[in-house]
C-alpha cells in the first residue's frame, strides 16, 4: 500500500511538472488573454490538477492523460465563465460596500443588506494561521503565480496548489458559517 501511494505521488508530481505550464497557457488562451481574467486561468489550472489528484488511480491507467487534463481545464474555464455571469446578475459593488441580490425570496431577505467588505474580509481572514495568511496575500492579493510561490516557499507546485485549495476551502466554510448565522 505504501509503495502504491509513493507511485501515485511520483506519477502525480511528474504529471504536474510535465503539464502545468501547457495547461496554464491553454486556460489563458481560453480566457482570450484578457489580463483581468488571469485569476481564472490560474484557478482553473490549479483546480485541474487538484481534480487530477483526486482521480490519480484512474489516470494512471488512462489512455490519454494529457487529453483528460485539457478537457477538464476547458470545462473548468467554462464553469468559471458561467459563475461570473451568474455573479454579475446577483451582485452590485460600490464604495467598498457590496449589495447582494437574489431571485430566491428567502435568500434575498437574508442578503439584501449592504455589507462592509473590509469588515467582512477582516473577520473571515482572521481565522487563517500566519502561514495561510502569507500564502493568501501572495496568491490572491499580490497575484503571484503558482510557480513563483513554489520558488518562494521552496516547495513543489503541487504542494502550493494543495495549500491554496485548503485556504480557499477554509475561507469558503467560514463565509458560509458567517451568512448562516445572520
Automatic annotation (TrEMBL):
* Top-rank lineage group of the source organism: Bacteria
Q: Which UniProt keywords apply?
A: DNA-binding, Sigma factor, Transcription, Transcription regulation
Classification via SUPFAM superfamilies: Sigma2 domain of RNA polymerase sigma factors, Sigma3 and sigma4 domains of RNA polymerase sigma factors
Keyword Transcription (UniProt): yes
> What GO molecular-function term can you cite, just one?
DNA binding
Pfam families recorded for this chain? Answer: Sigma70_r2 (PF04542), UPF0122 (PF04297)
> Is the keyword DNA-binding assigned to this protein?
yes
Q: Which parts of the sequence belong to the RNA polymerase sigma-70 region domain?
A: 17-82
PANTHER family hit by this protein: RNA POLYMERASE ECF-TYPE SIGMA FACTO, RNA POLYMERASE SIGMA FACTOR HI_1459-RELATED
So what family is this one in? Answer: Belongs to the UPF0122 family.
Q: What does this protein do?
A: Might take part in the signal recognition particle (SRP) pathway. This is inferred from the conservation of its genetic proximity to ftsY/ffh. May be a regulatory protein.
| Protein name from the UniProt record | RNA polymerase subunit sigma-70
Record organism: Paenibacillus etheri
Amino acid at each position: 500500500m505504501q509503495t502504491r501511494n509513493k507511485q501515485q505521488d511520483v506519477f502525480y508530481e511528474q504529471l504536474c511538472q510535465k503539464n502545468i505550464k501547457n495547461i496554464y497557457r491553454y486556460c489563458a488562451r481560453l480566457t482570450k488573454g484578457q489580463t483581468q481574467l488571469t485569476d481564472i486561468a490560474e484557478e482553473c489550472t490549479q483546480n485541474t490538477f487538484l481534480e487530477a489528484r483526486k482521480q490519480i488511480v484512474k489516470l494512471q491507467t488512462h489512455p490519454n492523460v494529457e487529453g483528460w487534463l485539457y478537457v477538464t481545464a476547458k470545462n473548468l474555464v467554462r464553469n468559471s465563465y458561467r459563475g461570473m455571469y451568474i455573479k454579475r446578475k446577483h451582485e452590485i459593488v460600490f464604495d467598498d460596500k457590496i449589495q447582494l441580490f437574489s431571485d430566491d425570496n428567502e435568500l434575498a431577505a437574508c442578503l439584501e443588506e449592504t455589507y462592509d467588505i473590509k469588515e467582512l474580509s477582516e473577520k473571515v481572514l482572521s481565522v487563517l494561521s500566519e502561514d495561510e495568511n502569507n500564502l493568501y496575500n501572495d496568491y490572491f492579493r499580490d497575484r503571484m503565480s503558482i510557480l513563483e510561490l513554489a520558488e518562494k516557499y521552496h516547495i513543489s507546485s503541487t504542494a502550493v496548489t494543495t495549500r491554496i485549495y485548503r485556504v480557499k476551502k477554509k475561507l469558503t466554510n467560514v463565509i458560509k458559517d458567517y451568512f448562516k448565522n445572520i
